[in-house]
Amino acid sequence: MSFVTLGGITLHHRYVDANGKAVPLVLINSLGTDFRIWDDVVARLAGERPLLLYDKRGHGLSGTGSGVRSIDDHADDLSALIDHFGLGRVVLVGLSIGGMVAQRLYARRPEIVEALVLSDTAHRIGTAESWNARIATVGRDGIEAIADGVMKVWFTPDFHAGRAADLAGCRTMLTRQELSGYIGSCMAVRDADFTVSATHIAVPTLCVVGDQDGSTPPDLVRSLAGLIPGARFEIIRGAGHIPCIEQPEALVALIRDFLASLSPGAETHG
């Protein structure tokens, strides 16, 4: 396990180095998860390019610090972590809230972002009413009260039927997240609206979504791609909200193809 304290926040992270000068990928988790959701992606990409994974503040083994008030708090942490490793330019791969963190970091520091992979995310997710209802339920009854419902949007019926042990493990991961970090991140997503800033993204962008995503459905992710000039949109068959767990091979194939389409200069680290 590796930890570093930056700006008063202790972040749990994993850095997988690689030979050559390929631009590093930074993998940013979804709400209620830790960086282990990327294990099958890392297993396929390790050695091809550097990979940086981390637990967001208030998630996994990372600290909570002064709490989470906005997406900016998560973007601050990620910005500091990238600088800590001296990565220069990176490709941000963000899932759900991680995709919002990626969008926000690009808006604040476009000079360090080579490209974006936005998975199962959007410029705006949900409504204030839906988030407030979730926050109230979790605050009163804990994450356990919503866990079964979350599993239904995270994963397809086939996953539920055929991968019972994996489903149980993912449910446990969700329910063991730190309560204040989870609620704070719900508030951050509730208050985030990147509709305007998405139109100013000027780096190559791949938007992907599971065909059975019940949290950010394909039409919502397609609308994000429509806002970003020149963005590519792809649907992953047989996946819910977390393709990196359910269909990692398909996700990695799309990422590889997207990265191969970048200009030769985009493959130079730094």
Task: Describe the protein.
The chain is of the alpha/beta class. It has a single domain (2-267), classed as Rossmann fold, CATH 3.40.50.1820. It is built from 12 helices and 8 strands. Strands 1-2-4-3-5-6-7-8 form an 8-stranded mixed β-sheet, with helices on both faces. A hairpin with a 2-residue loop joins strand 1 (2-6) and strand 2 (9-16). Helix 1 crosses helix 12 (248-260). The model is unreliable at 265-270 (pLDDT under 50).
Could you outline the blueprint of secondary structure elements for this entry?
Elements: E1 2-6, E2 9-16, E3 25-28, H1 39-45, E4 51-54, H2 71-84, E5 90-95, H3 97-108, E6 113-119, H4 128-141, H5 147-154, H6 157-162, H7 164-175, H8 179-191, H9 195-198, E7 205-210, H10 218-227, E8 232-236, H11 243-246, H12 248-260
Parallel strand pairs: 3-4, 3-5, 5-6, 6-7, 7-8
Antiparallel strand pairs: 1-2, 2-4
Helix pairs in contact: 1-12, 2-3, 4-8, 5-7
Distinctive features:
270 residues; Rossmann fold; eight-stranded mixed β-sheet; 12 helices; 8 strands; 43% helix; disordered C terminus
Shape call: globular
Which CATH-level-2 architecture? 3-Layer(aba) Sandwich
Residue stretches low in confidence (pLDDT < 50, at least 5 long) are 265-270
| Annotated CATH topology | Rossmann fold
How many structural units, i.e. domains?
A: 1
DSSP, total strands: 8
The largest pleated sheet is described as: 8 strands, mixed
Number of helices: 12
What do the pLDDT scores average to? 96
Main sheet: which strands, in order across?
1-2-4-3-5-6-7-8
Terminal residue distance: 26 Å
Taken in chain order, the helices and strands follow as EEEHEHEHEHHHHHHEHEHH
Strand content: 15-25%
CATH C-level class = Alpha Beta
CATH superfamily: Alpha/Beta hydrolase fold, catalytic domain
